[in-house]
Write a structure and sequence with these properties.
- With 296 residues, the chain is α/β, with parallel strands linked by helices.
- 29% of the residues lie in helices and 29% in strands.
- It is built from nine helices and 13 strands.
- The strands form three sheets. It has a six-stranded mixed sheet, with helices on both faces.
- The longest helix has 16 residues.
- It is elongated, with a radius of gyration of 21 Å.
- The two termini are 25 Å apart.
- About 3% of the residues have low confidence.
Length: 296
């Protein structure tokens, strides 16, 4: 069994003259719960569609568990919840479960029925009459009932209220905790991602800009605050803000065991949200100080 769930090399997808994704190279280890983050148009949905075989590369290569996407063997291993959680609105959950059983060789009907019972979702009510949160839970249930090795989620909680988002994410974590499922979760809601994800992929302008374990990436960055004329040495500045009196710099390459900081600097820890926003605030990927964590 491969220890790599997803691997791409120079992956690109072009629509006409425009590249939705370009020169995307990454490796996602199996068993991780990964956040896929980036501004609108960064290529997040395009990447997910390439992974599930709904779109074909214009350049480069992509593998899922060592194989090209789209084959029956690979599709049996993938659960996918698209951005608008598409479901046949006139169908009931019971009918959708039966459809899932007929279309998927390893579909776990018992898991699906039990999960909907635990959530209090009626199996005989048309999903078009349900709330957005309930529809999202039905879609997640159908994906989990495939018992996938890779679960792809494209903005599944974007339209949910805070309570429904929390319930969805709790259900997600409960559903994958015992299975060792690899999860790739696209979302703009950084606070939610920080609670559940242990791996980070940042796409910017169609390219990978940050890639790696959340703990390692956060530990590698610090916020330095000091006098306006100070400059750090031996560290890469990701983002800086200066006034006439004060400088605030988010830097990378910090190692408390070897990094020597001028004592005039005040050193602060950063959150995942601080890190992501700093990179995205720099604008186009080509203007950033170089990819973080991306293998050469």
């Amino acid at each position: 069994m491969t220890d790599t769930a997803v691997e791409t090399t120079g992956l690109g997808r072009r629509y006409g003259k425009n590249w939705a994704l370009r020169d995307c190279s990454l490796r996602l280890p199996a068993g991780r719960i990964a956040a896929l983050v980036g501004p609108n148009g960064a290529g997040k949905s395009t990447l997910l569609h390439l992974l599930v075989g709904l779109s074909q590369p214009s350049a480069g290569s992509v593998t899922v568990f060592g194989q090209a996407p789209g084959s029956r063997e690979v599709l049996d291993r993938i659960g996918f919840v698209a951005q608008d959680t598409p479901l046949y609105r006139d169908f009931t959950p019971a009918e959708l479960i039966e459809m899932g059983r007929r279309l998927n060789r390893a579909f776990d009907v018992g898991l699906a029925r039990d999960r909907l019972d635990q959530l209090g979702i009626a199996a005989d009510r048309a999903v078009g009459k349900m709330s957005g949160g309930q529809r999202a839970q039905v879609a997640l249930t159908l994906a989990l009932a495939k018992r996938p090795r890779l679960l792809l989620l494209d903005e599944p909680v974007a339209s949910l209220d805070p309570l429904a988002r929390r319930e969805f994410l709790q259900a997600l974590m409960g559903g994958v905790a015992d299975e060792g499922t690899t999860v790739l979760l696209s979302s703009h809601l950084l606070g939610d991602l920080e609670r559940v994800c242990d791996h980070l992929i940042v796409l910017n302008a169609g390219r990978v800009q940050v890639l790696g374990g959340v703990e390692e990436l956060v530990a590698d960055h610090r916020l330095l605050v000091g006098a306006a004329d100070l400059a750090p040495h031996g560290l890469t500045v990701v983002q800086e803000r200066r006034t006439d009196r004060q400088a605030s710099l988010l830097v990378r390459g910090y190692d408390p065991t070897v990094t020597h900081i001028d004592p005039q600097w005040t050193v602060h820890d950063v959150s995942l949200e601080d890190l992501v926003l700093a990179y995205l605030a720099n604008g186009a990927a080509d203007a950033l100080p170089g990819p973080v964590g991306v293998r050469p």
